[in-house]
Write a sequence for this structure.
């Protein structure tokens, strides 16, 4: 089969009329129809934020990758634009894989991975991944410029270029797999077309993964943050529970010099569903990250509804003095706030109380006084399927989802800070929850699948008393 943008558009027009919207996000970006995975090419260009994404318009499963495209003034209200890239080949005949965008003069340039097999597609030995360029003046229609970096000898997995400007040069990080070792390769260019191999920027030590996907290198607070999505790190205790991780290393780097780590790999989000994050700068200099709010090989019940996958809220990144990356909802999110539903400071004892009849698009604020609370479990529930609660015996904040009908049950959690209160901002959308803990300290993001009539929001405290020092909720637009 050959693919074109026109054909993808036709398919999407037909498909988007047949969606079941029960779980379709109210304030997050999802595809018009079909499948979506990684965010790509996030950038501010010509007065708009642009978000591209890995997209399969022809089904709700992953397939030959296209680049979907949307733009927004505020990172929350998105306008869908025509598909930007289709795997028209020959350099990308089996998929336009992940990549990034930069502005070169008056041109918006997309740098992405061309994915192609020579022969049997089930054999990795036949796989070639090359880096490609496409350019646009209007930010909507793109001209393919073809391959700019060929697959290095002996490599097959070589993808997800992230490009940025530094001094007089463009730099690119690319994820790679060498045997069973994940790597990040570095390249340099003066013109986005001719690229100089600058070697290996960093690579996995034993146990740190066979492939490092979606690398991103940026500066924060005088340091460099190397963010990437490693495949093949084993779960250990409460850590690295998802099939694949996304996280970061903090270090130092200057052009021409090696990357020197200043710490260990840290997971970025502790929920069930956050992967392949990509960062970009706002015109006022904030570093924002958006991730894919799903996990590979996890059940995705919205597939029966004609669409699949969504992107996370935009989150501002900062780096604190302990080199810890903090994520907070981008300030734009506050503009979604409508009616405030106040809730009194109160204590709960062996009870569950209803806070709202239907939580669909909502930001909930909860401050728990953990030192004065002795309940064994206390927190918030949404219908019967979701609880976000403090487990006093474990001394952890737990996100528990229970949708056995969809094969999705289990918990994710983060440790409590001993002796400290717990401030939570919880963002509920039709089929997602994002929990921001203690103003940037931790984040848990998971997909949830409540029935439309089972979205009651309740507070509870079992086996003891819990003290709520501040609470309320915003209806979101
Ligand atoms: C990450 C990823 C990338 C790749 C893309 C393919 O989720 O596997 O490495 O470019 O998805 O859709």
């Amino acid at each position: 089969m050959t693919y074109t943008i026109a054909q993808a558009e036709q398919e999407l027009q037909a498909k988007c009329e047949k969606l079941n919207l029960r779980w379709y996000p109210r304030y997050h970006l999802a595809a018009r129809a079909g499948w979506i995975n990684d965010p790509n090419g996030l950038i501010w260009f010509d007065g708009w934020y642009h978000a591209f994404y890995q997209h399969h318009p022809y089904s709700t499963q992953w397939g030959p990758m296209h680049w979907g495209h949307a733009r927004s003034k505020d990172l929350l209200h998105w306008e869908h634009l025509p598909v930007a890239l289709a795997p028209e080949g020959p350099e990308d005949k089996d998929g336009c894989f992940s990549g990034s965008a930069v502005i070169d003069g008056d041109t918006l340039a997309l740098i992405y991975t061309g994915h192609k097999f020579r022969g049997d597609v089930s054999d990795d030995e036949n796989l070639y991944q090359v880096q490609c360029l496409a350019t646009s003046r209007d930010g909507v229609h793109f001209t393919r410029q073809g391959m700019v970096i060929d697959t290095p000898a002996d490599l097959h997995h070589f993808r997800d270029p992230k490009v940025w400007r530094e001094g007089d040069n463009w730099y690119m990080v690319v994820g790679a797999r060498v045997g069973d070792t994940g790597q990040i390769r570095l390249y340099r260019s003066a013109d986005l077309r001719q690229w100089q191999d600058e070697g290996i920027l960093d690579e996995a030590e034993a146990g740190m993964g066979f492939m490092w996907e979606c690398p991103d290198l940026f500066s924060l607070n005088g340091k460099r943050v190397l963010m990437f999505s490693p495949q093949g790190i084993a779960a250990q205790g409460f850590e690295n529970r998802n099939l694949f991780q996304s996280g970061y290393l903090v270090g130092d780097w200057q052009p021409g010099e090696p990357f020197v780590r200043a710490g260990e790999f840290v997971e970025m989000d502790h929920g069930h569903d956050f992967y392949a994050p990509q960062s970009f700068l706002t015109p006022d200099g904030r570093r924002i990250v958006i991730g894919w709010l799903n996990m590979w090989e996890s059940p995705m019940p919205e597939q029966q509804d004609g669409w699949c996958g969504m992107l996370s809220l935009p989150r501002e990144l900062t780096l604190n003095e302990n080199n810890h990356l903090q994520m907070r909802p981008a300030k734009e999110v506050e503009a979604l706030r409508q009616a405030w539903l106040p809730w009194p400071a109160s204590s709960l004892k062996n009870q569950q109380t209803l806070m709202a009849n239907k939580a669909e698009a909502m930001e909930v604020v909860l401050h728990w006084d953990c030192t004065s609370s002795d309940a064994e479990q206390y927190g918030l529930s949404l219908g019967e399927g979701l609880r976000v609660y403090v487990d006093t015996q474990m001394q952890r904040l737990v996100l528990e989802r229970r949708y056995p009908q969809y094969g999705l049950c289990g918990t994710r959690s983060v440790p409590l800070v001993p002796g400290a209160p717990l401030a939570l901002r919880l963002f509920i959308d039709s089929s997602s929850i994002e929990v921001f803990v203690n103003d940037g300290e931790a984040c848990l993001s998971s997909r949830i699948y409540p029935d439309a009539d089972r979205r009651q929001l309740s507070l509870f405290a079992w086996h003891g008393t819990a003290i709520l020092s501040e609470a309320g909720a915003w209806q979101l637009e």
In short: The longest strand covers residues 457-476. Residues 402 and 408 are 6 Å apart (CA to CA). The pocket of beta-D-fructofuranose is lined by residues 37-38, 54, 65, 97-98, 113, 159-160, 213-214, 275-276 (CB under 6 Å).
